[in-house]
Specification:
The complex is a heterodimer of chains A (524) and B (394). Chain A has 524 residues and is of the alpha+beta class. Chain A contains 14 helices and 19 strands. The radius of gyration of chain A is 36 Å and the shape is elongated. Chain B has 394 residues and is an alpha/beta fold. Chain B folds into two domains: 214 residues, Multidrug efflux transporter AcrB transmembrane fold (Up-down Bundle); 165 residues, no CATH class. Chain B contains 13 helices and eight strands. In chain B, the strands form three sheets. Chain B has a four-stranded antiparallel β-sheet with strand order 3-4-2-7. A two-stranded parallel sheet of chain B has the order 1-8. In chain B, strands 5-6 form a two-stranded parallel sheet. Chain B is elongated, with a radius of gyration of 30 Å. Classes of the chains: A alpha+beta (524), B alpha/beta (394). Strand 18 of chain A pairs antiparallel with strand 7 of chain B, so a sheet runs across the interface.
Chain lengths: 524, 394
């Protein structure tokens, strides 16, 4: 054996060993896609218009407040669209003051005077910034919520760099409805003072409250309703409260929230305020002992207990919850509020039994296919067929090694890609072997026929495989998860087959030809 | 084994006959897809909701269809899935108009009403709830009398719930509570608590998918773009590597293959989904691959004998590569054949495309790609140009 042969042999063995090492044991090294291992895949859209609307609303309030502080009491504002509003009742003499306020507090706005009206329009860059911020914040919030759900290896990422879509992949999650509700939950929590009935609790009709205020509710109050639940947590009736519009504290002021059990073993939510909020709450409760405190969730009063003593930084919400509601509410409170509503555009939930079934069937098809191809190679090429079989087996080892090494995800179409690779990988061998046969027929010696066969078939082999790679590239570019898995296994399979057919198979020929001094015939 | 060697088939002689064969097949395909409109678009492209549901007893498809339709869901398609004894069905419906979020709730609600007996009202259905919900239930029951609001207790109940749900998912659903006895790692008290506080419903949702109209239409556009762009990419590659006439020949052949396969795929009633696109793009690659090997040989032979007419060289090259063409198609057919037979419902459509595609692709690399390259040469080649110039000059 020449040194060259030894050197190449060592390289091949090393590559095979590395591939085996990286892929062994298979069930631990290969990432299974959601379609095979089971789980939930969601594509959701952050309704960024919500964030724009609330920003516009907030900025308008701010402007009016500043105008009032500066002495313009007649200013009236109205929101025109998600990104514009108008203000009337401001004389043109006050334009300078408006300009100062805008410069100080509303830097993202353009404004102009149109007669009596001031028109405000959000700048494009600011619109973009708010949209972006809403998605980033939603991403963060969703991540927190999913973490609380105890999912291993979740994927939560923005689709593209600028879009308003988020992709969520949760392996092993078996209850898509619950996880969807949890992610989507706005859970806007507020603590507000109850004005009537003064000591908390509710009354059975709106009219009773209105009557109490002489049929005209003061500007700082509003009437909210809340459910009355029976022991099973089912809603049986509604009750009403007059509460202050302004919230003392909101969910944003919570440092922590955890589910727990109350006095009668009923599920409750325990919470802890941040240090700063705790001080505010202590003072507030001190001043309002024996009045009612409404705990408002998404505009519904879930409970309105009487304040019995000064409360500093912790408390509990007893809202006749089920255990599940208490768990989910504390998760959502811990994770922070969503900046905008969410719409689910795509949802794919697969149970593991379906995936397991697919893997077994794919394996079966692969083994049957492989056996048939091996038999065909041995039948057509006799002993040289062994060469093709070795190349094919090595091809499969390298394919799995590469999949494991690069952490590629195996999907159901990916399994099809592997099976297909088994059939197509021998193509390169067939091209070369047929050429060698032809050259032998032209009367060449085995050695020169092998040389000529490899030399002449090379361009065909490359061209043929590059066209398949081009198709795989477009597939990858087009693809969603499972299809990408297919494009990956097909491409890796083709590259591996180029290596085995051109390099390994050639080495095997050289090895055989070098064994004997003069080789008269090839079994091909 | 010497196989198909030294053949001297005059492929080019009969090319006109095969133009008609191809035209006929194409007409059937185009009619099936575009005129008759039989293409069975899956929810990936049409948008809609698809549920895979397992029932305890054999479900009646007609009854299911009535139930789901009565719930106000449109375009309901119900078919059996898996092996006969599995009692599994696929329920496929169109998108709910004006909504991205689909009809899962409506369908499950309708099934609930029809298939869940009175004992299930308000009870915890072990076949329908997930790990988290079961954990919550165990925490609430405090089945092992731990200090229930501690993290350790929650973690412990989480493990128990996972063991139970994993056991259920391995089979799809629990049929009887006795199955709980076989679960290792479940303490007697927890087992008791679960048995006493849960019921087993008569169906379980194994999988659910919803594609909103927005994503559906995007996938449609992207799918068409991927196929068209890959075809152009092939044309470009062959143009650069060979000559335009070969590129045109290959492009005609591959378009021919795709359309005929699509026609047969449609007639066979398979669902057109994302995996189908993967199948067709693979077919594109395979079909061009086949043509390229022939062209490669034509190019080599042309270099050797410049004087011989292209038609003769093509015949020679086709004969020289015939054994390879047949062998490679054969091995590919062996594997996709086993995929078609043993690969299961989900991959059957894909395997069908490759199987048909390989057969058509092999035929077309011989009878379509080369003749069209030849035709292009006759119409626009150097000789044709010279002839035209001479004709103008006289």
């Amino acid at each position: 054996m020449t040194r060259n042969l030894v050197w190449k042999g060592a390289l091949i063995v090393a590559i095979a060993a590395a591939a085996l090492f990286s892929a062994w044991p298979l069930h631990e090294t290969i990432n299974l896609g959601l379609d095979l291992r089971g789980g939930v895949h969601l594509v959701l859209k952050v309704e960024t218009e919500d964030a724009l609307r609330s920003e516009t609303n907030k900025d308008l309030d701010r402007l009016l407040q500043e105008l009032k502080d500066g002495g313009s009491f007649s200013a009236v504002g109205a929101q025109l669209s998600d990104t514009s509003f108008e203000v009337t009742g401001v004389s043109s003499g006050e334009d300078g003051a408006v300009e100062d306020i805008v410069a100080d507090y509303l830097p993202g706005w353009n404004w102009r005077r149109d007669g009596d009206r001031l028109e405000f329009e959000m700048q494009d860059a600011f619109v973009k910034e708010i949209r972006n911020l809403a998605v980033v914040q939603a991403l963060e919030t969703i991540r927190n919520r999913v973490d609380a759900f105890g999912v291993t290896e979740p994927i939560i990422q923005r689709q593209g760099l600028e879009g308003d879509r988020i992709v969520v992949q949760l392996p092993g999650v078996d209850d898509p409805e619950r996880v969807k509700d949890l992610i989507k939950n706005t859970a806007f929590l507020e603590f507000r003072l109850v004005a009537y009935p003064v000591g908390g609790g509710g009354v059975s009709s709106r009219e009773e409250i209105l009557a109490n205020f002489g049929n005209r509710l003061p500007d700082n109050l509003e009437i909210l309703s809340g459910p009355i639940k029976n022991d099973d947590g089912e809603i049986v009736a509604e009750q009403f409260y007059a509460v202050e519009k302004r919230a003392v504290l909101t969910g944003r002021d919570l440092k922590n929230a955890r589910p727990g059990l109350g006095e009668f073993n009923e599920p409750i939510v325990n919470f802890l305020f941040t240090h700063e909020a705790g001080k505010i709450f202590a003072q507030f409760t001190q001043e309002n002992i024996n009045r009612g405190l409404a705990i408002v969730l998404d505009g519904k009063v879930i409970t309105a207990p009487r304040i019995r003593s000064r409360i500093a930084d912790s408390g509990m919400i007893d809202g006749a919850f089920t255990q599940q509601q208490a768990t989910d509410l504390s998760t959502v409170l811990r994770s922070g509020a969503l900046p905008a509503a969410i719409t689910y555009l795509e949802e794919r939930a697969v149970g593991p039994s379906l995936g397991q079934d697919s893997i077994e069937r794919g394996q079966k098809a692969g083994v049957v296919g492989l056996t048939l191809v091996i038999l065909a190679m041995l039948l057509f090429y006799r002993r040289t067929g062994i060469n093709a079989v070795v190349a094919l087996l090595l091809n499969i080892v390298v394919l799995f090694g590469a999949l494991a090494y690069f952490g590629a995800t195996l999907t159901l179409p990916g399994i099809a890609g592997i099976v297909l690779t088994i059939g197509m990988a021998v193509d390169a061998n067939v091209l070369i072997f047929e050429r060698i046969k032809e050259e032998l027929r032209h009367g060449r010696t085995p050695k020169s026929a092998v040389d000529a066969g490899f030399g002449k078939a090379l361009s065909s082999v490359l061209d043929a495989n590059i066209t398949t790679l081009i198709a795989a590239l477009f597939l990858f570019q087009f693809g969603t998860g499972p299809i990408r898995g297919f494009a990956v296994t097909l491409s890796v399979g083709i590259l591996a087959s180029l290596f085995t057919a051109i390099f390994v198979s050639r080495w095997l020929f050289d090895l055989i030809l070098s064994r004997r001094d003069r080789v008269d015939a090839l079994s091909i | 084994m010497n196989f198909l060697h030294d053949t001297h088939i005059d492929f080019m002689k009969y090319r006109k006959v095969f133009v008609w064969v191809s035209a006929l097949l194409l007409a059937v395909g185009i009619f099936a897809v575009f005129v008759h409109g039989d293409l069975n678009l899956g929810i990936d492209f049409a948008g809609g909701t698809q549920l895979t549901v397992k029932f305890r007893d054999e479900p009646e498809l007609d009854r299911l269809r009535e139930l789901v339709t009565a719930a106000g869901v449109e375009d309901v398609l119900i078919q059996r899935f898996g092996e006969p004894g599995d009692h599994e069905v696929i329920i496929k419906t169109a998108s709910v108009s004006g909504s991205e979020e689909g009809s899962r709730g409506l369908i499950v609600g309708a099934l609930d009403e029809a298939y869940s007996g009175p004992e299930l009202a308000g009870a915890f259905d072990l076949n329908r709830n997930g790990r988290e919900a079961l954990t919550d239930l165990l925490v609430q029951l405090d089945a092992e009398s731990l200090a229930a609001d501690s993290d350790a207790a929650r973690a412990r109940y989480g493990e128990l719930a996972a063991a139970v749900i994993d056991a259920r998912q391995a089979e799809g659903m629990f049929i009887e509570t006795a199955e709980l006895d076989a679960i290792a790692g479940l303490s007697e008290s927890a087992r008791r608590a679960i048995k006493d506080n849960t019921e087993l419903g008569s169906f379980a949702v194994l999988g659910s998918e919803n594609v909103g109209p927005q994503i559906g239409s995007e996938l449609r556009q992207k799918g068409v773009a991927a196929v068209v762009l890959s075809l152009l990419g092939m044309l470009l590659y062959i143009w650069l590597r060979f000559e335009l006439r070969f590129g045109v020949g290959a492009l005609v052949a591959v378009t021919h293959d795709v359309l005929i396969t699509l026609g047969l795929f449609t007639l066979a009633g398979f669902e057109f989904n994302l995996t189908t696109i993967a199948g067709f793009l693979t077919l594109v690659g395979y079909s061009v691959n086949d043509s390229v090997v022939v062209f490669d040989r034509v190019r080599e032979n042309l270099r050797k004998s410049r004087s011989k007419p292209l038609k003769h060289v093509m015949n020679l090259s086709l004969n020289q590569t015939l054994s390879r063409t047949v062998l490679t198609s054969g091995t590919t057919l062996l594997v996709v054949g086993s995929l078609l037979v043993a690969g299961g419902d989900v991959l059957r459509g894909f395997a069908f495309i490759i199987t048909i595609g390989v057969v058509i692709g092999t035929y077309s690399s011989i009878y379509v790609a080369s003749p069209f390259a030849l035709l292009w040469e006759e119409l626009f080649g150097r000789e044709a140009r010279t002839r035209r110039r001479e004709a103008r000059a006289t």
